[in-house]
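It is worth pausing here to work through a concrete case rather than discussing structure prediction in the abstract. The textbook approach is simple: state the sequence, then state the predicted structure, then interpret. We follow exactly that order.
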Amino acid sequence: MRSPALSLVLLLATAPAVRAQDCTEQLKFPEVGRWAEYKALYNGKDPYTVRYAVIGTEKRGGVDLKWVEIRMVGAQKDHNMTGQMLVPGSPLDMGKVQEIIFKPGDRAMKVNGMMMDMVRGQLDKQNFLAEVCKEVTLVGEEKVTVPAGRFQAKHYHSAKYGLDSWVASSVPFGLVKSVGKNYQMELAVHGDGAKSSITEQPQEMPGMGGPPSR
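Step two, the predicted structure:
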């Protein structure tokens, strides 16, 4: 049975979000060390803390890439998970991910082989930070209050998907608040100095075969 944490990851990756150019310009990966933490509620009953952070940079094939970490902490320990992705400098390019480390509990694993190709395909189609701007219209600029404070933000609405999002380029990753049919997220706090939450050497994911995909 799928855990609530995994369900929320999939939901945040596939939340319905033509892209509004003005909206996507607000959503960018920040500099190394910048992070944003959100209070999230899944299906109205499962609370989580979701933290996005840029924890490092790396150059491969002449391309500058960033290590982006997503860490989720739920009410139950076995629902916690951490994921790290080596990606280009925009949330719109998540499908070009070069490496993924996944820690659903106490053991860190490296995604490889056929699984890596499958994940790339999914991220190319479904990606929360970009999807909040899909098929939306600009409602206007508003002041929105969240646990992190009061922000001047642009409010976008998707009538097709029943989605409302508030974005501001002044905060890391751009997202201030997002409310959909099965979830809600609000910026709780943000700051600098982010480092990797995974300190151990990740193991190859069992049963997938092949070396890590590059």
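Step three, interpretation. Residues 6-19, 208-214 have pLDDT under 50 and may be disordered. The chain has four helices and twelve strands.
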